């Protein structure tokens, strides 16, 4: 589950281990901060004097931070971590009480769990009450229940999973979601319940549906046209992208789009395709694919000239081949 992967991720960050957390390497500093002497200055001149007379074996916060930030340090950020992870580790140096126990749930705004074999997004995620960005790419998620997602979520990335149905995701979707990434999944159309409309995603700005199995261009556009804030759309890799009028029809049908398939929509292009949305009859249900064979190994070349000796009565042998493509 995602909760198990998250706890493992926290252990991997070592928020309670040197140079993070609270230990023999910095305990006098935080002890003095919590209990200043009566009538004495707390964290000012007193702190400066403590810096000068630091107990043997302790390090200053600056020195501990340097151990985290130096890429050659043994305590540098582990590979595959996010800027949010680095922020947590630095917070564990400067204010370790903020990331101890369940306190970490209150400060985490971004969570990146990539390639960890997660199959289920469970209710444990609801503990992250300030979470705004959730990256779950390259896992094994086939269904995701929106009731288990924090309402504060603005970015949800599910690229390279096994999502085939949006029903559970659209039960109680996060109302402020701005980006939904569903590329490289198993979605197909048409979607009879219209899960990609403003009724479910009123604030969606960016939508990635690339490399799925959508085939109904007209049906999909009828849903996406209700997304008034949509500016970025990725549909490449779907069968419908092979339609001859694909890009022009989308550009004219969704006039608020700024980027389609990672390419900016220029004013000249919008003018060129003006009026195409009112001609759905131009959209055909078939596609033409041209395949060029560069080289075939292991069989005689039928184009090679036959070399015969003068006066030879040997029979002429002809080769021919048939190549079949299965879609």
UniProtKB/TrEMBL annotation:
<protein>
    <submittedName>
        <fullName>LRC43 protein</fullName>
    </submittedName>
</protein>
<feature type="region of interest" description="Disordered">
    <location>
        <begin position="33"/>
        <end position="58"/>
    </location>
</feature>
<dbReference type="InterPro" id="IPR032675">
    <property type="entry name" value="LRR_dom_sf"/>
</dbReference>
<dbReference type="InterPro" id="IPR001611">
    <property type="entry name" value="Leu-rich_rpt"/>
</dbReference>
<dbReference type="Pfam" id="PF00560">
    <property type="entry name" value="LRR_1"/>
</dbReference>
<dbReference type="GO" id="GO:0005737">
    <property type="term" value="C:cytoplasm"/>
</dbReference>
<keyword id="KW-0433">Leucine-rich repeat</keyword>
<feature type="compositionally biased region" description="Basic and acidic residues">
    <location>
        <begin position="46"/>
        <end position="57"/>
    </location>
</feature>
<keyword id="KW-0677">Repeat</keyword>
